[in-house]
Amino acid sequence: MKTVFVVNPASANGRTGKEWPRLSAKLKSLGVEHEAVMTRAPAEATELTARALADGADVVVAVGGDGTLNEVANGFFKGKPPEASAIALMPYGTGGDFRRTLGIPTELEAVAEMLRKGNRRTIDAGRIDMQSLDDIPLTRHFVNIADAGIGGVVVERVNHASKVLGGRLTFQLVSLRTLLSYKPQPVEVMSEERNWEGRAQNVVVANCQYFGGSMHVAPGAKPDDGLFDVVVFGDIGGLEAIRSIQSIYKAQHVNNPKVTHWRTAELQLLSPERVLIDVDGEMCGTLPATFKVIPKALNVIVP
Fold first, then answer.
1. What is the pLDDT of residues 119-157, one digit of tens each?
2. Which of 86, 90, 128, 212 qualifies as a cystine partner to 299, CB 3.0-4.6 A?
3. Segment 45-54, tens digit of pLDDT
4. E strands along 209-281, which residues?
5. Helix, strand or coil for residue 40?
6. Which residues of the chain fall below pLDDT 70?
7. Which residues contact 95 (CB under 8 A, 6 or more apart)?
8. Residue 219's closest CA among 234, 209, 233?
């Protein structure tokens, strides 16, 4: 089996690049033979993944955070990779939210065991057709969560912040500062099952359950049920949001009358204002946007 690691050396505040030689040697000593390629620029992981699959890789492992995983996942949608290929994650980044839903370990020895066993779970992916930050049409796929509203502002600020305090604390501090200044924006959400219109702090489109450094935003989401879990945070002011932010970590926000949630396989989001879109922890574009589930899109290596 040919295994290729796509390594983001800038993840974990640059620690990944410094530690990769040691990590690679340890993986080989644990029985995980592999090749490795290092990214040098944003979005390069997508091209490196597509190239690895075209060259016959059976497993492509993203080494980094959720943003790196997203870039690697997008590489699976370029060209036509063999159905037997699989994606895997070696968590080494800021957010680490995708791994929580699938139970992917963080310890190196446990990751090595997971890769040796090669157990696979077939999951859905999401496709977004949106406007890029340069206001041109853009298509992007995601495996964890996308959201429109304050989430895009938070991830932009997180990605420019130091991560020395760790992923969760960084997200918390940036979220609190952003909540004080962010004003909910007018949004229209349209789907076959339900429509929603009003001022929204955030509209979350979830394939998995966690985002924002372990916020349990979509506790009922299943990555293989063919549906998104949509969670709309309505007109919630800054102080109110700060007082209730811990409820998201405990999945109690769904009881808030200003929070609406339902399931759908496709939805459209519109706004007369410039609303930012966060895709798996990366700020990628703006509304308007269409979100569609791609059922059984990826084989993922899981414990």
1. 999 999 999 999 998 999 999 999 999 999 988 788 777
2. 86
3. 999 999 999 9
4. 228-233, 259-264, 266-270, 276-279
5. coil
6. 81, 94-95, 159-168
7. 65, 66, 67, 167, 171, 211, 212, 213, 281
8. 209
Can you tell me the distance from the alpha carbon of 115 to that of 118, in angstroms, rounded to the nearest whole number? Answer: 5
Cα–Cα distance, 191 to 228 (Å, whole number): 11
Strands 35-38 and 3-7: parallel
Structure tokens at 98: 């995708």
In a 10 Å sphere around its CB, with 0-12 CB exposed, 13-18 middle and 19+ buried, how is residue 227 labelled? buried
**Structure confidence at residue 168 (pLDDT):** 64
Which pair of tokens denotes residue 277? 């879109």
Residue 26, token pair as written in the block: 């340890």
Q: Tell me if 87 sits within 8 A of 298, measured CB to CB.
A: yes
Query: How much is the pLDDT for 212?
Result: 82
Q: Where do we find the tokens 């406007």? A: 131
Kindly state the helix (H) or strand (E) to which residue 236 belongs, with its residue range. none
